[in-house]
Amino acid sequence: MKKSLPLRAAALATLALALAACDNRNANNNNTGGGNTTASGGTTSPAGGASGTLVVQESADIPTLDPGTTYDTGSGQAVENLYETLVTYQGNSLSELGPLLATEWTTGQGGREYRFTLREGVKFHSGNDFKCADAEYTFRRNLVTNTSSSGNWFLSESLLGTGSNANDDKSITWERITNAVKCDGETLVFTLPKADPAFLSKLAYTGQSIVDSAHAKKIGEWDGTEATWKAAVGKDLTGSPLSQNPSGTGAYRFLSKNSNAFTAEAFGDYWGDKAKIKNVVIQIVPEQAARQQAFLRGDADLIETGGRPIVEAQLRGKPGVAILDDLPDISAFGIFMNQDIKGEGRLGSGKLDGQGIPANFFSDVNVRKGFVSAFDVPTYIKQVQSGKGEPRNFLLPDSFPGYDQDLAAPKFDLDAAREAFQKAWNGQVWKNGFTVNATYRAGSVPAQTAMELLKQNIESLNPKFKVNIQGKQWSEILQDGDQGKEILIMTGWAPDYADPDNFVHTMYSSEGFYHPRANFTDPQLDAWVQEARTTTDTERRNELYSQIAKRAQDQAYYILMPSNPGILAYRDNLQGIGKDTFNPMLAFRTGTLWKDLSKS
């Protein structure tokens, strides 16, 4: 089993997902489209001091409310406010983690054991008390189910030494699962097969939120026993009973969800600082123009805007609109050059005769250097990103730990590109030319512009060089990319957890998720990546990532896209949003949880 990121990747590529808020008057009258799913059995009440409504408008539905399979931003923005994790990010830091449902923790056995002291006096929305048994059940359930549509692969990597579930890896037993996570009284104990420096960051991921085990079992979820665990392996949780009737410890409790809207209210028995806004409504409004009109009228507090060009041209400077700009970019994008292209009919002649390319065309480092040097990053920043962003030296966000700011980024240099192409394939590339096919996501202006810039510059070097670009549906690109059939594609990665390994292993390891899209194996990089995954020495990890970045740049494995700072438009009567509190690993779009927002 391998992990899959269609929802997250597509959302990032289109810059399309966002929080939004809906009409105060409608929300206060509970006019949300007739919700047909409601929370059951709760004995709690809404927060007495909260008032008003946060209204959010999105283009797409929320796929699931079950933390065990939450792996997209649409679901995550709701789940992270209904549920809570053991630890969380502190302020706007991507590296500092602090307590949430755990109050403290210790490590032992050389980084292989973690012992968590859990918070007392916490209630679930059902009225049940939070206990260690709930945390034990949660993590065992995640290890047991572990489908490709969840983020549980990286939890399983840490606790079982494999990202697979028991259907795909027969060495996984009930004993291994129960030994990996268990309660010692009211202390939660994790035992890892080897040290994992990213483990704490993984526990901060929304999909590792703690569920109400008694409530889950009561409504028909897995009973948590050895007798039934095999039947639950790989089970799809998207529309699970827990998705329809969630019970978490978060500051908001679920009210209803249907194809038109999601509603929640402040939880009166929340253990921490109570929410200031009483109701939250996420409305599904597919039409961008309708969302924008609602936002400008003040009927929506936050909307899916369509990205920087829309914000700059149609929202900035309008009455009642506030803008938060230059937000940290935590994604990494590049143009992949496939060194072992699979499939028929994509290579033209399949030879270095000017009418096509061989399947291993990009295995020559000088071909790759030619393409890298021919990509005009400064023009891309100017034309596509309104001058925002900086060139990068690595497929790792420059906001992340492990990024070496002292390493220069590749330069746009047509003379260097010409020199590289003249050396490529012992001079045959320059002599005979080539015809190469590149694809981009249909409808993506940034991706199309990038490919057009690359085509223009490559073809300017030699009349025998041809780059044909074609728009394709994102689903096709994902499928063909995973099968190694794409030749030149732009793709990217959004982090599951704020650790460099989440990017570096994905992009640069021969065992990484994106390996089929680039198809190179570099034993030196593999060794460095593996060492960085297992050492807890921060200084050594930083040194390793710097070495990986330098070697990868020398080998020109990717055309690196620049950073793309975020921009947020919101109604100016919404407080609690600011750079000092904005954390891109939390609360997609707003950078802070609903409970920390207020309205004037």
From TrEMBL:
Keyword Nuclease belongs to the record: no
Biased composition (Low complexity): 31-48
CDD domains named among the record's database cross-references: PBP2_NikA_DppA_OppA_like_7 (cd08512)
Keyword Signal: yes
Ranges where the record places region Disordered: 31-51
UniProt entry keywords in alphabetical sequence: Signal
Signal peptide range: 1-20
InterPro entries, per database record: Peptide/Ni-bd, SBP_5, SBP_5_CS, SBP_5_dom
The family this protein is said to belong to: Belongs to the bacterial solute-binding protein 5 family.
Name by which UniProt lists this protein: Peptide ABC transporter substrate-binding protein
Organism: Deinococcus aetherius
Upper taxonomic lineage: Bacteria, Thermotogati, Deinococcota, Deinococci, Deinococcales
